[in-house]
Amino acid sequence: MIYTAKRDSKRFTDQTANRTAIKIQAICYRRLAKRGRRSPYHVLTPCSLSISVESSSGNKWILNIHSGKCFIYVLHQRLQTKNQWARDDPAFVVICSLLLALATVAYCAAYDHSAAHAVSVVISVLLFHFLLAGILLATCCWFLTNAYLREEAPNTCVVEQRVEWLYAFDVHCNSFFPMFVMLYVIHYFLSPLLVAHGFIPALLSNLLFMVAASYHHYLNFLGYDVLPFLERTTFFLYPIGIVIILSPILILSGFNPSRYFMNIYFSRTL
Length: 270
What we know:
By secondary structure, the protein is an all-alpha fold. It has helices at residues 2-35, 53-63, 67-82, 91-111, 115-149, 165-194, 199-225, 238-252, 257-265, and strands at residues 42-44, 50-52. Helices cover 73% and strands 2% of the residues. Strand 1 (42-44) and strand 2 form a beta hairpin. It is globular.
């Protein structure tokens, strides 16, 4: 009974993915037509690896608007064409790294006085905020899903499926990008207000961090919830409750996360 329900759910997911694919392709064609382009372009790395930059950029744009549909569409396309869950090119990681470096350089230009210190800040943000934090988070989620959240096969004839580590890192990248938009781009333009003294700046800063962290965990949940062989994936929503509980405490205590992190990374004292 459970296996039949799971197959019905997978069939519904495939139908939803097909409809979503048609809609997203139509959107992409319209966007390309407006730009005067006809086909996506590729960048060749020194290892002769083809990277679909247009596709990765489109995924980022869709993630901020239709996150659930993006996960279903991308996973369906990979499974149909490559028989794997994870992406096999580093385009998404490269674009995230470049955008993160550009945003950090903008912060350094506004809040730092030393070029050498700015270079160290860019390197540390890329290594710790994105890569090392992503590797740690992906490893934890990869272990938890394979050890505790996989659905048991109804019989021994069914091929056992496991979450790939690269897929877990993909989920981190997809979840990181909307948080990057909120905490690096939007935060940059609001930073003159957010780093000021007073209750209102602390309130706005905590609310921005709360929304960004909650949306990050929600996208992390979506990334694993779409896999048909996982169950109890609502476990990944529990950190949202912790964030919502902690935010009022931090607001009432007068803690301003914007001032805290800006004083840590940049030489200009706020």
